[in-house]
Amino acid sequence: MNNVCQCFVAILILAMQHKHSMIQFISILDIFLLIVIIFYLYCCPYTKVEESFNLQAVHDILEYGSNIDQYDHLQFPGVVPRTFIGAICVALLSSPVYMVFSMLNASGLHKQMLCRGVLGIIVWSGFVWFRNSIEKVFGNRTSQLFSLLTMFQFHACFYATRTLPNVFAMTICLWSFGYWLQV
Hints:
This protein is an all-alpha fold. It has one domain. The protein has helices at residues 2-17, 28-43, 52-64, 72-75, 85-103, 108-138, 140-152, 154-159, 165-182. Helix 2 packs antiparallel against helix 6 (108-138), helix 3 (52-64) crosses helix 5 (85-103) and helix 6 (108-138) runs parallel beside helix 9 (165-182). The longest helix is centred in the last third of the chain and has 31 residues, at 108-138.
């Protein structure tokens, strides 16, 4: 845990020193928001049944690829038809590290946390984009307050790594509202 804290401090120092680099798009508060999201993932690594549909879809895509006959959703289709779009996005972004984890015989929990961490980064990118849009329209102080509010209220950061349909939708909404604010 100490190494993780040292790594985050180093990132914060770099962000403060390089104001004219690509880090300018990401504020220090954005980095802290990502830390909070990853903290909740680390503290609560297990999932509930509501998350199992999309998480199983991510698993099937990563483990079986195009061999759809092996997919769990064929044997247990559920009552409501589901989309695989969110699961495909998470699986594609997770796949390089997932393959390394598989070669190292990592546990299923570690692979699950990897995929959920990728989802958390996707959601975080939506928050960063939305905060930047708020800053362009309403100013720096308002965007800072938005970041602080998001960071210190529990639900958005906790659910950012949960493979629920609403979390995938929240990401799309954050990006959409960000574009809408700039128009």
